[in-house]
TrEMBL record:
GO terms for biological process: proteolysis. Keywords: Hydrolase, Membrane, Protease, Transmembrane, Transmembrane helix. One of its GO terms (molecular function) is peptidase activity. This is Membrane protein implicated in regulation of membrane protease activity. The chain crosses the membrane at residues 7-30, 36-54, 66-86, 98-117.
Length: 128
């Protein structure tokens, strides 16, 4: 398995973590409703978890890889729903932040769903 892929995945997840923590800092400075705090904290925790999963996947752990694939496909869909919802409770600045997070996570989805990466994590019982 090409570790360059996992280094890029880890870097993208670290970027999501940094952005999410910065979002909580902005919420502390300018004030944020409960939706901002809940979403910001949840995304920060999820990003930390994904950084850890990227390390496990880089070491060949299939379950970590499968979780990353699932999250990186599902999360951008959820983010799009937040962005298009007319009265979601998210202020414009947080919708912009979530758009950036969505792009970063979608980039990970593109990386981990490439054929070479998928083939490095065969289903149990399959060798190739």
């Amino acid at each position: 398995m090409d570790n360059k892929v996992w280094a890029a995945v880890r870097a993208l997840f670290v970027a999501v973590l940094v952005i999410s923590v910065a979002t909580l800092g902005v919420a502390a400075l300018i004030g944020g409703n409960w939706v901002v705090w809940l979403r910001g904290a949840a995304v920060a925790v999820a990003a930390a978890w994904l950084v850890a999963l990227a390390g496990q996947a880089a070491r060949g752990k299939r379950s970590a890889y499968v979780r990353i694939r699932f999250v990186t496909i599902a999360a951008p869909i959820g983010i799009v729903l937040i962005l298009v919802a007319p009265d979601s409770g998210y202020p414009g600045w947080m919708k912009a932040e979530q758009a950036v997070v969505g792009v970063l996570v979608a980039a990970v989805a593109l990386l981990v769903n490439r054929r070479a990466v998928r083939q490095a994590f065969p289903k149990r019982g399959k060798l190739g």
